[in-house]
Design brief:
The structure is a single chain. The chain is built from 11 helices and 4 strands; from the N terminus they run ααααααααβββαβαα. It has helices at 15-23, 32-69, 75-112, 128-135, 138-163, 166-170, 177-218, 222-257, 294-305, 314-323, 335-353, and strands at 263-266, 271-276, 286-292, 309-312. It has a 4-stranded mixed sheet with strand order 3-2-1-4, with helices on both faces. Strand 1 and strand 2 form a beta hairpin. 15% of the residues are buried.
Length: 357
């Protein structure tokens, strides 16, 4: 796995590289798993659910031909018999097809989950040289081995299944038609079940190989690892800087609202919350600013600079700081405490104005 730059892919893939590969559809999925699941489903159907279907079709045909024996067998009558047969068989075929689709999807989803692969035209896939390289790669060798293995398994299973039934097959013509049908489908179900079991073994090894092969393809060089780390750190620093700027802008807007407040409730040193109440526009007092430690100190300074009343109430300051966000109304459980504080502030302002009136 040497690279053009002289570096080898020796580093395990990072989480980001795995996620990017998954978005591009690079997942460890074995096509043998759905094949084994479908064969197993068909085997189960032939061994369990086929008899009732055959009996239903037989009964319909018996009824149709017995009825036809007493009437004239016209084209219309033959069409009716054929249509009835289709209506009996079609639901079974449709159900079997739907079940096959569901089993195939589940077998794929259980391996890799839901993956939506974008449709892209890769020019390198059209290059015949790259095609030859893929044929002689580890993946190509594995595909060749799987094909040879499947052909060998299917041939061997078919041989031993039919070899043990040679005498029965030679005398099969002595059975009535229903017996021939039941025996044939039973033998087919047994054959499917044996092949499915063999493919399960192949599917397990193939899935392990696909995961190992994907891991090898996703490995990174040291330079790729360094580049990704720089990019990740750069993105993280940029996001942190954006969040910091947003916090500063939000804090600046908050500080601009402190002079508009009616009162600032303090802890007295750890917390400070600024409250504003407009009887005509608000149904309850609003929190316009809050802060802890240094920010609380700054809120108190701005309040003093703008003649906003400071009230020391540690319990109310602490509870409002932890339970109310900036711009929100005061919850009902704090109405009484805040109302008493505002009433006290209004009385203070009234007393200050009265002497000069």
């Amino acid at each position: 796995m040497a690279e053009a730059g002289g570096q080898e892919r020796t580093e395990a893939p990072t989480v980001k590289r795995r996620e990017d590969a998954r978005k591009e559809g690079q997942v460890a999925m074995s096509r043998e798993v759905p094949s084994a699941a479908l064969l197993g489903m068909f085997a189960l159907y032939f061994l369990v659910a086929l008899d009732p279907t055959i009996v239903a079709v037989e009964n319909f045909w018996i009824f149709s031909f017995e009825h036809a024996a007493t009437t004239e067998l016209t084209i219309e009558q033959s069409t009716r018999i054929f249509r009835g047969t289709v209506f009996v068989i079609l639901p079974v075929v449709a159900g079997l097809f739907g079940l096959a689709v569901i089993v195939g999807l589940l077998a794929s989803v259980m391996q890799v989950g839901f993956v939506i692969t974008p449709l892209k035209l890769h020019g390198e896939r059209l290059n015949p040289i790259n095609g030859v390289k893929r044929i002689f790669s580890a993946q190509g060798a594995a595909e060749l081995f799987k094909s040879l293995f499947k052909m060998t398994v299917i041939g061997y299973v078919t041989y031993i299944s039919l070899d043990s039934e040679v005498m029965t097959l030679l005398t099969l013509s002595r059975l009535p038609p229903p017996g021939i049908v039941h025996y044939s489908f039973g033998l087919l179900g047994t054959l499917f079940a044996r092949v499915a079991l063999a493919l399960v073994v192949l599917a397990i090894f193939d899935l392990l190989f696909q995961r190992w092969n994907l891991e090898q393809r996703l490995k990174m060089t040291r330079q790729e690892l360094k580049d990704e780390l720089k990019q990740t750190e750069g993105d993280a620093q940029l996001r942190a800087r954006v969040r910091q700027v947003q916090r500063e802008m939000s804090r600046a807007r908050m500080m601009q609202n402190v002079p508009k407040a009616d009162v600032v409730v303090t802890n007295p040193t750890h917390y400070a919350v600024a409250l504003m109440y407009d009887r005509e526009a608000m149904t309850a007092p609003h929190m316009v600013a809050k802060g802890a430690d240094f920010l609380a100190h700054r809120i108190r300074e701005i309040a003093l600079e703008n003649d906003v009343t400071l009230i020391e109430n540690p319990f109310v300051a602490r509870e409002l700081y932890h339970n109310v966000e900036i711009g929100e109304e005061i919850p009902e459980k704090f109405f009484r405490a805040v109302a008493e504080i505002l009433a006290y502030v209004y009385r203070l302002k009234g007393q200050a104005v009265a002497p000069s009136a």
